[in-house]
Amino acid sequence: MKVKVLCFGISLDGYSAGPNQDLQNPLGVGGPEILEWFFPTQVFQRMHGGSQIGETGVDNQMAERSFENIGAWILGRNMFGPIRGHWPDESWKGWWGDEPPYHVPAFVLTHHARPTLHMQGGTDFHFVTDGIASALAQAKAAAGDRDIRIGGGVDTVRQFLQARLVDEIHLAVRPLLMGSGENLWQGLDMRALGYEIAEVRQGERAMHVIVRKQA
After folding, report:
1. C-alpha triplet 7, 108, 67: angle, nearest 5°
2. Is the CB of residue 105 less than 8 Å from the CB of residue 75?
3. Please, which residues have CB within 8 angstroms of residue 171's CB and are 6 or more apart in sequence?
4. Which part of the chain is the Bacterial bifunctional deaminase-reductase C-terminal domain (predicted)?
5. Where do the domains of the chain lie, and which CATH numbers do they carry?
6. In the β-sheet with 70-75, what is the strand arrangement from edge to edge?
7. What is the pLDDT of residue 51?
8. Cβ density class 31-65: b for 16+ within 10 Å, e for less
9. From CA 57, how far away is CA 95, in angstroms rounded?
10. What is the bridge-based pairing of β-strands 117-118 and 182-183?
11. pLDDT (tens digit, 9 = 90+) per residue, 134-160?
12. Residues 6+ apart with CB under 8 A from 24
């Protein structure tokens, strides 16, 4: 079992989300540009009910790898929805409709309790109020011998990296400058934390960099 951050889009200047995130701009203003490598892939098209063809090059191969052997996900509150603070009600069930793309248990980090949400396709959202260590322990129990994928957002990934809980991170580096937003590297010294670059592949719209924690 490994803990992984996969297909994590990032701009050349280190941003993985744009500024002013809200319901209309879940990735922040300009944020979708970071994921423009992913949208044309066959993986994305099939996942979201678009064309069944899609592109099948390096970008798609790397996206396919990111869904292999995943037994559980961990998500930050912002990845689940734009609502802040106490849940006003339980009508919000995520960005993705009745069948989310996870198909395994997903553990959502939040400060506000909420009952487990059962969705179509085998996705159960469990809301974890006692931090990343608890979320990871629950995800490990659910995943068995399969891997755990940290799905973001940026702050969640930073917390797991700072605690050296991530074994591998796959960055999809887009050739663009965001200038502002949420910077993945803010407050992190990856070399001091014991991470090193293990693999680099050039895709059609992104450069894919695999970073692994040293033993």
Report:
1. 30
2. no
3. 8, 9, 10, 208, 209, 210, 211
4. 8-205
5. 3-19+28-83+99-213 (3.40.430.10)
6. 117-118, 124-128, 106-109, 70-75, 147-152, 3-11, 168-174, 207-213, 195-202
7. 59
8. beebbebbebbbbbbeeeeeeeebbeebbbebbeb
9. 27
10. unpaired
11. 999 999 999 999 999 999 889 999 999
12. none
Judge whether 102 and 117 are in contact, CB under 8 Å.
Answer: no
- Token digits of residue 163: 């605690």
Q: What is the pLDDT of residue 50?
A: 61
Helices 132-143 and 154-162 pack at an angle, to 10 degrees, of: 90
The residue written with tokens 């260590």 in the block is 133
Q: Which residues contact 47 (CB under 8 A, 6 or more apart)?
A: 101
Q: Residue length, the chain?
A: 215
